[in-house]
Amino acid sequence: MQKKYLDLKNSIEYELLETAGTILREGGLVLFPTETVYGLGANGLNEKAVQKIYKAKGRNPDNPLILHISDYEMLKTIAQTPTKVEKQLMEAFWPGPFTLVLNRKPIVPNIVTGGLDTVGVRMPSGKIAHELIKYAKVPVAAPSANLSGRPSGTKLEDILSEFKEKVDYIIDGGLSEIGIESTVVRVIEEVPHILRPGKITPEQIKDIVGNVIIDKNILGEISNDEVVMSPGMKYKHYAPKTKCILVYSESDKTLINKITEISKEYKSSLILCSSENENSYGDNKVISYGSKQNLEEVSKNLFTTLRKVDEFDVDIVIIEGVKNEGLGLAIMSRLLKACDYNFIGV
Ligand code: TXA
Ligand code: MG
User: Fold this and answer.
1) Phi and psi of 320, rounded to 5°?
2) HEC string of 49-65?
3) Around ion ligand 2, which residues have CB less than 5 A away?
4) How far apart are the C-alpha atoms of 329 and 135, rounded to whole Å?
5) What is the predicted pLDDT for the residue at 223?
6) The pLDDT of residue 225
7) For 139, left (φ over 0), alpha (ψ -120 to 50), or beta?
8) From the CB of residue 11, how many other CB atoms can be counted at a distance below 10 Å?
9) How many Å lie between the centroid of ligand 1 and the Cα of residue 7?
10) How far is the CA of 280 from the centre of ligand 2 (A)?
11) If we measure between CA atoms, which residue out of 184, 53, 197, 177 comes closest to residue 125?
């Protein structure tokens, strides 16, 4: 049997990615690391290959996929000529954790776009992802590697059991550098609208083009009949199996008091908090997602920590929120979804 696993955790032998590139081009499924999260990749121009992604994830077919490219030549094949603002954003944030929703060309199969006229495009900066796409020689359709509704995969051990029987090749790149998915932006009348917050913050976007709108659906619960700009907004996401509740206060003292009070209402609870507050909850079970003074660290740990909470077998997970600005916006949007919008602000 052909070897199916490539370990590039501590190696820069990127030429070994040629096999995986060929598998992708020829219609196989490849699990691979990017700088944001792991992706479940297929040839983005091959309808049958893309179908396998939806099947493996159990993803709703109206939820479109991002096409990953390695250079601007590839971009020309799938998207219409970008506008001035779109071009400025690409130049500022590509390669990197940034996805632009662009008008598509007819070559992009309907199954990739969920039938929309637009296509999400990203040029990753992760070296493995970049080289893999180069070897594939085609745009690579890749959602985050997780079963639909589960936290995204940021290390192989977390997702192997979900996918090892379903993919043709697996690349291990260790823990993802960023840990949360790319910022998704659509430019409308030359104004960038953030459809999903991510590593690239609203402030950074505003600095480049002078303007930014954060879509109102990012932090709010969406009713079933609402028309949204990005189908992914509608779906339950990142959820541990245990019920979770998110609590935030600007004051640590108020936050700790409120969380302690909630924990007493349940027979068993787990508190997910910043390392600063780890020792403030007495006898309660506690795990930390890292320092709230270092949101890069929190984003890196977020999904692996959310996956861990189910191991504690408790009635409730109470999560400390972070300040909702900069990278904090992306973190809070994931936490709100993980808690199914069960939020208490004090
Ligand atoms: O960092 C990332 O973006 C990762 C890595 C693997 O690149 N990918 C990722 O893909 O997070 P996925 O499929 O899990 O999330 C893509 C999001 C979805 O919420 C989807 O609805 C939205 O982007 N999206 C994709 N194409 C779109 C389009 N044409 N219009 C609006 N939203 C779109
Ligand atoms: Mg996803």
Assistant:
1) -75, 125
2) HHHHHHHHHCCCCCCCC
3) 144
4) 35
5) 73
6) 74
7) beta
8) 12
9) 26
10) 33
11) 177
Distance CA 290, CA 254 (A): 20
Partner residues linked to 287 by β-bridges: 272
Ligand 1 surroundings by CB, under 6 angstroms: 34, 36-37, 39, 63-66, 97, 99, 101, 113, 116, 118-120, 122, 142-144, 181-182, 184, 195-196, 230-232
pTM: 0.96
Q: Give the tokens for residue 230.
A: 């990005």
Quickly tell me which residue has 């590039």 as its tokens.
Answer: 8
**SS3 of residue 100 by DSSP:** strand
Q: Which atom of ligand 1 is nearest to the CA of 118?
A: 29
Which residues fall within 8 angstroms of residue 33, CB to CB, at 6 or more apart? 8, 39, 126, 128, 129, 156, 171, 172, 173, 174, 176
Three-state SS at 170: strand
Calculate how far, in angstroms, residue 276's C-alpha sits from the geometric centre of ligand 2: 30
Q: Distance between CA 121 and CA 153 in Å, rounded?
A: 20
Residue 309 CA to residue 287 CA, distance in Å, equals 8
Q: Which residues of the chain have pLDDT under 70?
A: 1-3, 224
Read off the DSSP letter of residue 293. Answer: T
Yes or no: say if 162 and 147 are a contact pair by the CB < 8 Å rule.
yes
User: What dihedral do alpha carbons 320, 242, 337, 126 form, nearest 10°?
Assistant: 90
How far is 249 from 345, CA to CA, in rounded Å? Answer: 6
Could you tell me the sign of the dihedral formed by the alpha carbons of 85, 63, 318, 291, in that order?
negative
Q: What is the pLDDT of residue 3?
A: 67
What would the pLDDT profile of 34-85 be if each residue is shown by its tens digit?
999 999 999 999 999 999 999 999 999 999 999 999 999 999 999 999 999 9
